[in-house]
Amino acid sequence: MRVLGIDPGSETTGYGLIDTDGKRHQLVEYGTIRSRRGASFAQRLLNIEEQLQRLIEKFRPDVVAVEEAFYAVNVKSALKLGHVRGVALLVAARAGLPIYEYSPLEVKSATVGYGRAEKHQVQQMVRVILKLPKVPEPHDAADALAIAICHIHHHGGRGKGRSR
Known about the structure:
Elements: E1 2-7, E2 12-20, E3 25-34, H1 41-59, E4 63-67, H2 75-94, E5 99-102, H3 104-112, H4 119-129, H5 139-155
Parallel strand pairs: 1-4, 4-5
Antiparallel strand pairs: 1-2, 2-3
Helix pairs in contact: 1-2, 3-5, 4-5
């Protein structure tokens, strides 16, 4: 099974693809989607949509895992994050892919074993789990890989279970 993990962000959206049989995990690709400086928010959303669409067409994932929105102090930032999440969900749904959503607590618990883990601990565990020589950078990409790993741990590489 191939899992596409997405860490939504209006400035930088991370993505990570992992192949798994439920026991062995292999990194396929990771990176970030960034918009040009000075682009309007609507242009950023369009760029994210186009890039995610290209990733899905190129890598043909079986399932998409997206981080849920978290409660932010800044309401404006939370709303922008919601828009980006909506674009990610729309692109995956349009492709007919099962979509699963995980809270930051679930992602940290699945990768580190502790829901209050620090960001660097999650990144190090992503490196260890995927047997990488170094931590994937930037952190948005490492977070997207952690989201994909979370899905694998919840569903054993089968893609079954509840989608949201």
